[in-house]
Amino acid sequence: MTAFLALIDRDLRLAFRFGADTLASLLFFILCGSLFPLALGPSPDLLRHMGPGIIWVCALLACLLPLDRLFGAELEDGSLDLLMLTGPAPAAVAFAKMAAHWLTTGLPLLIASIPLGIMLGVKGSELPLLLAGLAMGTMSLSLLGGMAASIVLGARRGGVLLPLLVLPLATPVLIFGAASSYAGQLATSPAASLDLLGACLFACLPLCPLAAGQGLKAAVG
Amino acid sequence: MTTPSDFPPPPTPGRLLDVEDVTVFRGDRLVLDGVSLTLDAGDAMILTGPNGAGKSTLLRTISGLRRPDSGEVIRYGALAWLGHQDALKPGLTLAQNLALAEKLGTTSLPDALDALDLTHLTDLPARLLSSGQKRRAAFARVMLSGAPLWLLDEPTVGLDVASIERLGAVMAAHRARGGAMIVTTHVPLPLDNTRSHELPSLAHVDSFWLS
């Protein structure tokens, strides 16, 4: 457990030291979301209707950005060898990296989605629901993305392969997440979509670290 | 985390490692052909052989990073690993880089840094260290582990003569405490009573005739 926390601690320190990586996905998220009004025209009604959907798609894409380096940097400088040999169990190493990914990418995205939502005209009363959905959604995306990143680790053109692997897996998260965020606008109950979104998260929670651990072991072999 | 109970009891007292008839393929190229060796407490084994003879592959196989395609590797104690790369994050200080190893290990950080003459660099970011200083920092991680079996892949790369002497003293102390090590190196190390194991080059062997 101490090793697990020490690993997260180290990753957070690295993220603060090299703030550019964290900032890049955050700026990508905000810029990407700001492009839609430019393309769709400044109709407040249209933007308000599309707002939650835009935020969800942009968050999904922004989560992908730092995945390439999540394990890639560890593999290149030999840290992964050491972690596999003397660190905690491979699945725990993978889970620690996924947790760090969420803390450095998912959490900032969550906070940035508030101004982006307001900009797109999402009502204040709909924001808590959007954030609740996004919180679970970004956690699932960190888990799925970490798994995919460990699987393509060491493969040639892994960076190209990564989105092709993550995006199909992320579709249930996107469907149920966006559906829950639209509940306010459509005056329906978000319970069912939130339940299913939670189910996705709880399925990912044990499975993704286990699969990622095997991916890491294969990558160093 | 590895505890002593993870390892089988040694067949003879002091035995740390048995490598039995290990064969490894890389793709369809034969890299290691029936390698056998044993290591007891106090041993220092130098792996020699031309470039590409599979020295690093053998170390990776012994460490468990890679599974042998046939044969068996049995370890009777924990191991510490020094790979080709130093595994230091350029943005973190030396102490932060070694924090994880210190938490997992049994030796204290100041002692290890002192033995390798790194104390004055503790709070310096790793990107400011020279390649020799980085190599010593990576070696400090091996010392921190407190593991009896050291696997060292080219520990002396980039080191000056004084640093190699210092490394030799650390290695001798480790052997005196009942530790053992397997080292690949191209420069002579200041160690006495070493055993050496020569790996032949298998580059000329056509894998077709082996299958």
Automatic annotation (TrEMBL), chain A:
Pfam families on file: CcmB
Membrane topology: Multi-pass membrane protein
A Gene Ontology BP annotation from the UniProt entry: cytochrome c biosynthetic process
TM annotation in the entry: 20-40, 46-67, 102-122, 129-154, 160-179, 191-212
Any single Gene Ontology cellular-component annotation: plasma membrane
InterPro entries: Cyt_c_biogenesis_CcmB, Cyt_c_CcmB_bac
Keyword Transport attached: yes
KW Metal-binding (keyword) present: no
Gene Ontology molecular function, alphabetical: heme transmembrane transporter activity
Subcellular location: Cell inner membrane
Keyword annotations from UniProtKB, A to Z: Cell inner membrane, Cell membrane, Cytochrome c-type biogenesis, Membrane, Transmembrane, Transmembrane helix, Transport
PANTHER family on file: CYTOCHROME C BIOGENESIS B-RELATED, HEME EXPORTER PROTEIN B
Record function comment: Required for the export of heme to the periplasm for the biogenesis of c-type cytochromes.
Family affiliation: Belongs to the CcmB/CycW/HelB family.
Name of the protein this chain belongs to: Heme exporter protein B
